[in-house]
Fold this protein.
Amino acid sequence: MMTRNPPSQAGSTQAPPSAHDQATRRNGGSLAGRTIAILATDGVEEVELTDPMAALRQAGARTLLVSPAKGEIQAMEADVHPTNRYHVDMQASAAHAAEFDGLLLPGGTTSPDHLRMDHDAVRFVREFVQAGKPIAAICHGPWTLIDAQGVSGHTLTSWPSLRADLTNAGGHWVDRPVVTDGMLVTSRNPGDLGVFCPAIVALFAAAPAPARHGHVA
């Protein structure tokens, strides 16, 4: 099995950049200077990790993989097929929202289920909620938002099996490919990545970028 760091722009295989992409790069990227945390652990759905990460990096953001796990995490395809392992940049116990400009919560059934039972992971997400910082979540990713008190009063979407949980937590669940509600963007599944990725870049680009307290190495 292959072990890899999160893919870099230079090593990715993508279609030739559009005129808009080229202009964005000339201007330093719409997310230049911003650092986005990606919170995940073993069982994360690989494409929900790698596609948004690539979109954020292409827009100029720095991304860091945050996890309760040490060393590496195991990504999956469709929950049951192991794919690649990814290097953890920072443990959740040492991470604080004040060091980041936004948060991404990928899905997969196993990863969010473990995260919502981890004290440090939930505390980390709650810090974003309390600070009003932008959060993006896809598929089962919104599960952790329930424990972080980040659902009540929001219109959002997710994998269909989370509908009752999110509704019981005070959210208004809708079946749409992507939903933007204030500082929260959500999507349902990997098939929505084509609209989810542009939406999260727009979310993080539009949010204020206050000076961060502390330093992310």
In short: The radius of gyration is 16 Å. The first strand starts at residue 3 and ends at 4.
